Task: structure prediction
Amino acid sequence: LKGKHILVTGGAGFIGHHLVKTIIREKPAKLYIIDNLSTGLQSNIEDIIGLPEVAFINEDVAKPSTVESITDLDYIFHLAAVVSVPKSFEMPFLTHRTNESGFINMLELARKLKVKKLCYASSSAVYGEQMQMPIQETATLNPQSPYGLSKLLNEQYAKAFQEWEDIESVGFRFFNVFGPGQRADSPYSGVISIFMDRMQKGEPIQIFGDGEQIRDFVFVDDVVQALLLGAQSEITFGLYNVGSGQTTSLNELYDVLKNLTKYSNDPTYQEARKGDIKKSAADINLIKNQLNYNPKFNLKEGLAKLIGTA
Ligand code: UD2
Result:
């Protein structure tokens, strides 16, 4: 990425700010960051915004005018989105507008500026509930929320635009990403940041459902690794699971975090959330084999880094 022109949307967000910090170390010629700070935080990238090679565009990713000032581009990393399943049920139009119109805005930009690769966040939500674990990319897709549906449409547009317009893209079906900088102040945030925050403050914790739902928790540094590998690959159209390859139930997670934080309370169990998936386990062989992805953190190692003991 040295000497290249790069755009990161959602660059002030959780995954985005980690990616931006990694890209800056590679000395790009120009780094554009689009983020309307709806869930991202300017404080995440305050030190980056001031750099001469960085242009921060505090605008909505779904507006064509947002990208008008960008005239030269090699790579797009498109991460800006409504990222919450419950929020997507509450706000299907906002989800549609941000996630679908935002994506098409990126496709048009990629076409106009002859971008080498569009790397974008898809989600394990495209799978919905599956019988076969771990889930391979070839599984029949069955999204169960407006959010999951919006990501499936992104993938289908990416496929179509590769055929119609020669736009090369790699979509990443993120499983449950965690790490430093994930907000804990929203009920829509990731369960690890919520549990960690509440345990550290001694506040009560709710488990939705029976706690036996399983997830693949993948550390954010590994997600950044995957995104960068995708940009540098020769793949013209790709879709990959991004996980750790290991699963944990919510009850197990609770116990691990309880021990780490010396929390003494028991959780209260509540009704499962709408659209909640019972089993979500990633098969990561495809991305390992095709992109040489090699996750460096399991849950315990990621948590140790998160709480600053690694
Ligand atoms: C994750 C992604 C989402 C989408 C989805 C695909 C996050 C934040 N969200 O949603 O973008 O890709 O996977 O299926 O990574 N829970 C509790 N108590 C709480 C909060 C959560 O029990 O206070 C449960 C929740 O009901 C779910 C599990 O913890 O069963 C994980 O929740 P999450 O919001 O971290 O992520 P998920 O899997 O719903």
